[in-house]
Design a protein that fits this description.
Order of helices and strands: HHEEEEEEHHEEEEEEHHH
Distance between the termini: 27 Å
Structural class: alpha/beta
Oligomer: single chain
Shape: globular
Number of strands: 12
CATH class: Alpha Beta
Number of domains: 1
Helix content: 10-25%
Radius of gyration: 17 Å
Number of helices: 7
CATH architecture: 3-Layer(aba) Sandwich
CATH topology: Collagenase (Catalytic Domain)
């Protein structure tokens, strides 16, 4: 099978969701049909299909194991399984993030803190659970660094055969630039690491950049927008458009239902 490389533009512990956390974000959560979300969002495309993870635990929550890279981890294709690669051209391999952390004067604990906050944003918006593992071979999502011409990028392994109108994501990687400066919550001079990670994880979950104007993206603080003006210091909640997009793929807490793209 021919390996298909598709452009995917980028900038940019297991946790149980408590009733309090759900209450805090309830004002932002509105379940919308996929067609309504598509008015603002572009979903990662695989052979004409939107993509999402299909792995679910006993409660119907989509569970994704993640790890920080300890060695080089490459996207792969499997002709027998029909697996293809969807990746930014610069993020086909992710490596242990030692250079990016060193250049930013950050520790691995800083990276773990930023990553935990980024994952919690998506867990708070849809029935998703991210489970930390150490072995990258056991991880569905691996976060590391690469030699990028971008601030960060993401790549996916996808099986494009439709399941309920979606292609299935099998593995994802995130690459941070070795040459950019990051801070956990951002500064005027450094990229907001938490927000950059949240943006790239949004790609790994199946969201592409929204079809909105720069003015609207900045005004509404849309995480999945890629323009630098939106990468602000500090951490805000996901915007209503970010929430609508992720719920269109994975459902909400009330129903737990995932809608067909048809």
């Amino acid at each position: 099978m021919v390996i298909k490389i598709v452009s995917l533009f980028s900038v940019a512990t297991q946790k149980f969701i408590t009733p309090l956390a759900i209450a805090l974000i309830s004002s932002l959560i509105v379940l919308v049909p996929l067609s309504a979300a598509q008015a603002a969002y572009r979903f990662i495309d695989a052979g004409g299909l939107p993509t999402r993870w299909q792995s679910k635990d006993e409660s119907g929550i989509t569970a994704i194991r993640y790890a920080i890279a300890t060695k080089a981890v490459a996207l792969r294709a499997d002709s027998d399984e029909g697996r293809i690669k969807i990746a930014n051209q610069d993020c086909k391999v992710t490596n242990a993030p030692s250079a990016s952390l060193h250049n930013s004067k950050l520790s691995y604990d800083d990276l773990r803190q930023a990553l935990k906050l980024a994952l919690q944003l998506w867990e708070g918006a849809a029935p998703l659970r991210f489970i930390a593992v150490y072995d990258v071979e056991q991880a569905d999502l691996v976060i590391g660094e690469g030699e990028l011409g971008l601030v960060a990028a993401a790549g996916l392994e996808v099986i494009p055969q439709p399941q309920d109108g979606f292609a299935e994501i099998k593995r994802g990687i995130v690459c941070l630039s070795r040459n950019e400066g990051f801070a956990v919550m951002g500064t005027e001079a450094k990229w907001n690491l938490t927000r950059v990670l949240a943006h790239e994880i949004g790609h790994v979950l199946g969201l592409d950049h929204p079809s909105v104007s720069q003015e609207r993206a900045i005004r509404e603080n849309i995480f999945m927008d890629y323009r630098k003006e939106g990468i602000r210091p500090g951490l805000a909640p996901l915007s209503p458009l970010d929430v609508a997009g992720i719920q269109a793929l994975y459902g909400d807490f009330t129903s737990g239902l995932v809608m067909s793209s048809k």
